[in-house]
Specification:
Chains A, B: InterPro entries: Homeodomain-like_sf, HTH-type_TetR-like_transc_reg, HTH_TetR. Chains A, B: GO terms for molecular function: DNA-binding transcription factor activity; transcription cis-regulatory region binding. Chains A, B: This is TetR family transcriptional regulator. The structure is a homodimer of 189-residue chains. In chain A, 77% of the residues lie in helices and 0% in strands. Chain A has 9 helices and no strands. Chains A and B meet through α6, α7, α8 and α9 of A and α6, α7, α8 and α9 of B.
């Protein structure tokens, strides 16, 4: 029942946005009584934060599985970048975006979202470093990995207003080249 | 009166978000009667789109003025990147972000926002090319300029959840270095 409520919440965040996601709509979509819902999640904020946490965890597992299938050799960097680009163009990103933007002007929500965001940020960064084989003891490498994640976040935001796939592909091609040259001295190419 | 209404709207978008910006609050803050406001802007959507257009134009003039003061020589790329980073960390970006996210799930708003977004995107791209002295006839250069703008957009989004200035500065330092090496073969350094 808990999982049904959380998945209904994520769907509604993606379809209706934060302000269009009401606890009544969630209980209707999940087919759960209002009483049972209030027992699990007393407030809308409890519900949306738990839903995005849940989705993030599920997606993190999917990312780990996708990472295990990445090629090695010259195509690897591009494949890593594509995996990240897809992640930030999917429903997890959209639901999280709704939460971030709502949290900007809602102190109680911000208090719940900010720690989640820090954990996710740290984990995604560590995974990216590992997948790229980046050596963060080298000056500037940490910042380049961060820039990569900020880039895919920016592309994700651009993508929410329209289908941006061809443009994103060209930019990620170019970024992968730059990363290879800078991180591996072009040795992988 | 029109300008007062538009500036009150932008302030409220930044302070309260899209759903917390009501036409009643705007007329109160601007000190304009409801009748006069409805005469200028019949709907909330008319008001918010006009407000962000107005702010974008004003900010574009400020960017042009800032661009005229940019240094030439080895510090130029870093200064251009800082100017863009600051732009995407300011109130215009925040107000536009509220509009983008609301437009994602509001077809009427999207119809008004999408053309504005295309014009702004094109103008910002052209300005960035000019300021960086980037030669877009070279393969990959166009994508590198686009990546720069998506990067500052991603940093802007990260910044809305907390003060991100020191991290942003280090990333922009690193990116300016990479751009100089790639666009100018390091000749500017």
């Amino acid at each position: 029942m808990r999982a049904r409520l959380l998945e209904a919440t994520v769907e509604l965040l993606v379809e209706n946005g934060f302000s269009g996601t009401t606890t009544t709509l969630v209980s209707e979509r999940a087919g759960v009584s209002r009483g049972a819902q209030l027992h699990h999640f007393p407030t809308k904020n409890d519900l949306v934060v738990a839903a995005v946490t849940h989705l993030t965890e599920r997606r993190h597992e999917e990312l780990q599985a996708a990472a295990a299938r990445l090629p090695t050799g010259p195509q690897r960097t591009r494949a890593v970048i594509q995996m990240l680009g897809d992640h930030f163009a999917g429903p997890v990103f959209t639901a999280a975006l709704e939460l971030w933007v709502a949290a900007r002007t809602d102190a109680a929500l911000l208090e719940a979202v900010a720690p989640l965001e820090r954990v996710v940020g740290r984990e995604t960064h560590a995974m990216t470093v590992r997948l790229l084989g980046a050596d963060e003891s080298q000056p500037g490498v940490r910042e380049l990995v961060q820039a990569t994640l900020d880039l895919v976040r920016g592309l994700g935001l651009a993508g929410t207003l329209g289908d941006d796939t061809p443009r994103r592909r060209r930019i990620l091609d170019r970024w992968a080249e730059t990363l290879d040259t800078t991180l591996h001295g072009g040795n992988r190419k």
